[in-house]
Amino acid sequence: MVDPVTVSVIHGALETIAVEMGFKLMRMAHSSIIRESEDFGAAIIDRHGRGLAESAQSTPLQSGPIPGYIRGIKRQMEKRGETLRPGDVIMHNDPYGGASHGPDVAFVVPVFIGEQLVGFTATTAHHLDIGALTPGSCGIVDAIDAYAEGLQFKAIKVYDRGVRVEPVWQILHDNIRAPELVVGDMEAQVAAARIGAERLLDLIGRYGMATFDAACEAALAHTEKLMRQAIASLPDGSWTAHTFIDGFEDSDDPARRDLRIQATVTIAGDSLTVDLTGTAPQVSDRPINMPFEGTVDIAVWLTIRSILLDTAVFGHIPVNEGLTRPITITAPKGCLANPIFPAPTIARFSPGNQLADTVMKALAQVVPERVSAGIGNLRVMAFSGETADGPWVHMEIFEGSYGGRQGSDGMDAVDTLFANTRNNPVEDVESHLPLRVRRYELREGAVGAGRWRGGLGSVREFELLADGGVSIEGDGHTYRPWGFDGGSDGHTANMQLISGNISTNMPSKMPYRRLRAGDRFQCAGPAGGGYGPPRQRDPESVRADVLDGLLTSDAARTAFGVALTATLAVDVAGTALLRE
Description:
Layout: H1 4-28, H2 32-35, E1 40-46, E2 51-54, H3 60-63, H4 66-80, E3 89-92, E4 104-113, E5 116-126, E6 156-160, E7 163-164, H5 166-175, H6 179-207, H7 209-232, E8 237-247, E9 257-268, E10 271-275, H8 292-308, H9 311-314, E11 327-330, H10 349-363, E12 379-387, E13 390-398, H11 426-432, E14 435-442, E15 458-464, E16 468-474, E17 494-499, E18 502-505, E19 510-515, E20 520-524, H12 539-547, H13 553-560, H14 572-579
Parallel strand pairs: 10-11
Antiparallel strand pairs: 1-2, 1-5, 3-4, 3-6, 4-5, 6-7, 8-9, 9-10, 12-13, 12-16, 14-15, 15-20, 16-19, 17-18, 17-20
């Protein structure tokens, strides 16, 4: 037995180590996707492969899958008859072996005391290029199988008993575009994971292995108890919801577009099951399938945790394997949410976000006061080109928006649900790349009306200052984010390619396309769904949106039933008449 204070101190130290690993990685990283967008993860795993703590400032889609990476590494090494030794560093990105998708590469340090394995420290990060068929690591929407998505690393030693495995590093240099950036980021990951290993050994040395193990078991049991109590407070039963993703809007094949995602949530006592039966079959020759372990599980766990154990209500909740123990996830083999190798998965980002939104929609029938209405999905743009100094690659995450929620409007122009990355500052983009950001503003006139309105999308316009190219993955051009409890649906996204005087509407997914200097992309982000009847919205809140230029007076009248005077004051009598 170990006392609760010691448990809390040891677990707090584990969290601090994970956060330090994350900050060290950010500061050492070469590319803006890690340094600015924070698209990375850091975690500490016990010797059994159970998550103990993760970096709080990183994205759940990076830190959350790390225990799955460890399990995949152990399976692969056992299959090959290899063993882990002190000084080893393992590289892994197999989406059928625990990884979120190929560009999210993990570097794992097994931690030893003498010859005894005591745990793992690991970092993951999204890399700008992984050697796929076209430049970049997102926007690869035309890969026909896993082999077209780039290099596959299945538990590869990059350091063997402390010795750098130079041929592996040379392969990386020779097969990745912008190797100075990408390999530099990888070396930063190794360094951050090693820092974590040093801190973990110091912590175990301070308390002893027996006390450390007992504290970890107690921390896992505590978070499991919290989740079970939260589930047990809900009524037993089953609730089903579905949404759709665009798929490939411009495809002649109906099996590639208008793809259904379905989730049935079943509560029985203190356990919860999410069954994804009813989800569309996998698209075997296009990369919008979702790895079951690494993407699907994280989307489900993150959504349930954020609804049932909201930190705004419950305070700090430790993030470890205990939270997932009461939750079972099932999905038919061969569907979008459980594809069969070698179905490609590199563009699983938007489908995974929509899956999280679907689980949210199912739980809205159980805990309506704790959910948001439908979210506006995201878009990722991979710009690239050649300069005198060599190839350049840039990944731009274009924000979505949240739906309204009880008591609050949806958040405007933010990354949503399981990704949680930051946008790149305009100054950073224009300082390092041949790109100009001509517009960056909130999208006016597109609002999911409700008592609490949905979040607004943004409008961003990029201009290439030199010849180059771009590929794009996104969603939400066809289906509007769902409104809830009388709220209106949100608004779809759209995108135009402007070349000279010609403007062309583009689908949500666009394979690599060469562009000339001066070509522009104008993107309008989606608006989240409204929550509650629009005519119950506070008239002063409607007026404020009109004063901010986000709504017109006509929209205030038609969508919200709010009449304004010529001086934009609320016409109380006129509003009452409209709302009758």
